[in-house]
Amino acid sequence: MGFIDDAKEVAETAGRKVKETFEDATDRIGDKVDEAKADANVKKAEAERDSVAKRNEIKEDLRGDK
Q1: What's the whole-model pTM score?
Q2: Contact between residue 66 and residue 60 where contact means Cβ atoms under 8 Å apart
Q3: Under 8 Å CB-to-CB from 66, ≥6 apart: which residues?
Q4: Which positions of the chain have pLDDT values less than 50?
Q5: 64 Rama class: left (phi>0) / alpha (psi -120 to 50) / beta
Q6: In whole angstroms, what is the distance from residue 9 CA to residue 2 CA?
Q7: How far is CA 53 from CA 2, 24, 31, 36, in A?
């Protein structure tokens, strides 16, 4: 019975390691997705800021504020 118990323990250990590796990979993928979303939000905010600044500049030119 010692051989069967050892084989069972090895199989359980291998199963745990596979599960941990899978969970780590999914966490890494999730982190990359979050990073990409944050980058997209920053780019959108920067574009909006630039748009507002340009619009204000045009309004100032039309009013003769400069």
Answers
A1: 0.62
A2: yes
A3: 60
A4: none
A5: left
A6: 11
A7: 76, 43, 33, 26
* Per-residue pLDDT at 1: 60
Which token pair is 4?
A: 């069967």
Phi, psi of 65 (to 5 degrees): -70, -20
Q: What pLDDT shows up at residue 3?
A: 78
**pLDDT score at 49:** 98
Helices (H) and strands (E) in the chain, counts: 1, 0
